[in-house]
Amino acid sequence: MDVNEKDAIFNYRRKYLPTQQVAYHTPPRFPLDVIESIREGASLLFRSLGLRDFARIDGWFLPSAVNVSAYSGNRIGRSKYGTVLFTDINLISGMEQTSFLFQQASKVGFSHSNILRSIIHHACSRYRNITMCDTTSSLLKGSKSSELTKGNDAKKVFVIFGGDTSERQVSLMSGTNVWLNLQAFDDIDIVPCLLAPNNVNHLSTYSDEKEDVRSRAVWLLPYSLVLRHTAEEVLDACMEAIEPARAAFTSKLRNQVMNEILEGLAKQHWFSGFDIDDELPEACTIGQWIKLAKEAKATVFVAVHGGIGEDGTLQSLLEDEKIPYTGPGAAASKICMDKVTTSLALNHLSSSGILTINKDVWKREEILNTPLHDIWNSLTLKLQCQTLCVKPSRDGCSTGVARLCCADDLAMYAKALKDSLLRIPPNVLSKPHGMIEMPSPPPEYLIFEPFIETDEVVVSSRSTNEGRGPLVWKGRSRWVEITVGVIGKRGSMHSLSPSITVKEKGDILSLEEKFQGGTGINLTPPPSSIISAECLDKCKLRIELVANTLQLEGFSRVDAFLNVDSGEVLVIEVNTVPGMTPSTVLIHQVNLANTVSLFIS
After folding, report:
1. 488 φ/ψ sector (left φ>0, alpha ψ -120 to 50, else beta)
2. What per-residue confidence (pLDDT) applies to 552?
3. pTM for this structure?
4. Which domains does the chain have, with CATH numbers?
5. In this structure, are residues 406 and 377 in contact, taking their beta carbons and an 8 Å threshold?
């Protein structure tokens, strides 16, 4: 693990939210002697402390010119390269999909199910009266990433994720979740594919400023390389896997560890072997990838958030080759990608209770070259408001979204644009707020809107003095923020149950609250004390009208404000490639509506 900032603390955010603030390397980029020292020390700790089944041991490697011969006695943890210092033992390690347990296990031949079954079997072996059923046949099913392990009748699905937008890390989380879940279906053979960042294209020699999309690089990934925390880590792992010296080193280490495991489990009748092969990633261009998909008669599951994955570009390329794909078509995607165009397409629905937010669009260069007090006065006069919401015109995941209460706030935001800051620290604007992730590179166009005041919904861990429950809602403005999934065919989209989004820090939903597990709060279904059944029905009908007007199909997500009295909907934006992470509210809504089979189809 590398922390990229000097004197930075490896805090909760860096640990559990995928960003480029931290990079992980599996296996580590240490000499073999150091890795052996780490493994020996961890094994000694495991035995000495009487640990069982599994654990995760954390520590530091401190490079130094240590003279090992100067030490007597136990030399574990010391080598000519430095010292290994163990600092923490986790008896129950993290179990998220790309956690170190699964990431490291996959490098030595264990799929998620195999390592978990092995842990369970090992625990049961201590009790002679417990008999485990034979799981050998199901264990090996659907584990390998690129080899054809399923029958010839299985439908090929290419799930593509990554890219180079500010949403690429969420895209990786979405794609990984889709890939892992669809493996459970015998009739689906799914292949994970990384759309490489455009600024790291190892295949294209195209030099024109206008990107030739077909020359963009795509990597077909083996199982273990999907389990990384960022798109950059996946790409780095691909490059390492095809670099001869590094590949030989990794293969040697893998074989050594696997042989030790086989030797240690030789007498355990329940161990049926490894189920992940040491496969190499395959690189191709988008043009070649589309050809592969066509030859395989594959369906493409689009999980690329933003950029060419959501603006209709990828959809258009797939349509040209008559390759089926998930989500709305190219035309609808192009409209919804642009927030201004989306509003214009819905303006005529105001008489139906569907409203849009007034907008004013500015070029970044205009903001940087115009007196900021003049801009502030112009915006507040034109939009008839005292506070503003600023956002990039073509970004998502709350990237670059901020509440501005005065000209000084605008100046701070403009400085972040000018300096190409990756993030605005918490609470530097006039009202309290969390970390604001900024788009990189800075956006060409920015949208200014009136900031919509909604009623704060507070989820408390204790009851109030009045004896009320943990949900506190004062209901003054009568507007709440909602997010709603829609699924179905073009022209007959079905609205799922809306979820009320609860902001824990500041006025804008943060990246953590949207996608970091155990962080954000969504109320699904919305409590009847806030939204009545009658209002809920009106809301769903209006959301369906929005979806059908925009010609959505497959599945999408509509973010909006809802008036809890009239049922009027004020549309914020429409996501044609919504997040599909384990924390995604869309999954909760599908489960609530008992429409899982419809959603999958």
Report:
1. left
2. 98
3. 0.87
4. 12-96 (no CATH), 102-115+151-201+212-336 (3.40.50.20), 338-355+478-600 (3.30.470.20), 358-451 (no CATH)
5. no
